[in-house]
Write a structure and sequence with these properties.
Blueprint (H helix, E strand, L loop, with lengths): L5 H8 L3 H9 L6 E2 L5 E2 L2 H15 L4 H11 L4 H42 L29 E2 L14 E2 L6 H12 L2 E7 L2 E6 L5 H14 L4 E7 L2 E7 L5 H8 L4
Antiparallel strand pairs: 1-2, 3-4, 5-6, 6-8, 7-8
Helix pairs in contact: 4-5, 5-6
Length: 256
Amino acid sequence: MDRTTISEAATQTGFTPSALRFYEDHGLVQPGRNAAGYRLYDERDVERLRFIGRAKGFGLTLEEITDVLRLLEDDVCGPVQERLRSLVAGKIVDAQDHVAELVAFTVELQRAARTLDVAPAPAGPCSDACGCLTDGPVVEEEGATGVALIAKQGAVAAKDPSIACTLAPDQIPERMAGWHAVLATVERREPLPDGVRLHLSRSTDVGALAELAAAEQRCCTFFTFRLTLDAAGASLDVTGPTEARPVIEAFGGVAA
């Protein structure tokens, strides 16, 4: 069986030699040694390291990776895939939570920017009126569509001013919590020409979902929601104009 040195293993896996030593110290991989005491990695070690790299890309912690590696040792894919699926689902929920925080923070920053843009600087010290110390009253421009453009899952604010949300900043956390509860029941995502179809579990409260979608459409008029109930269960189509595609994907997720 061919064996490679630590530098060769680093090249093959994309890790630095120090990272490989770190994983060895924590028991994730145990390379052999030659007569001179140098580490030697066989094909199984390299494949294990590549798996670790993929798991890190999913955002798994060291403890979670160690847990999955125990299953990997049995050479049976099913349990490994099922455990990864569960962990990835949890990471999606975590990411959505961060999205909600970033959306709320973005709205607050844009409100502050607007205050600083329209409030005149006083001749004397800073005050509440100038916007340096607190958010002062903001005079909305005629026809303004809201305090902030949608910015979700790392996307920049939409360039099209029609892709806007008029929801008040203090209402965002509650609204996002409602959508998190819905998205947690999504069993499958199907691509649509202008959006995504969310196939929901039978545990979804469709009445509450209908109210939530109606409320969302009132503040984000570029969204179109279509709720379908049939023998197969419930599904929600989230669609909109081409310019809104990044927002739709961040909102409802990307279909596989």
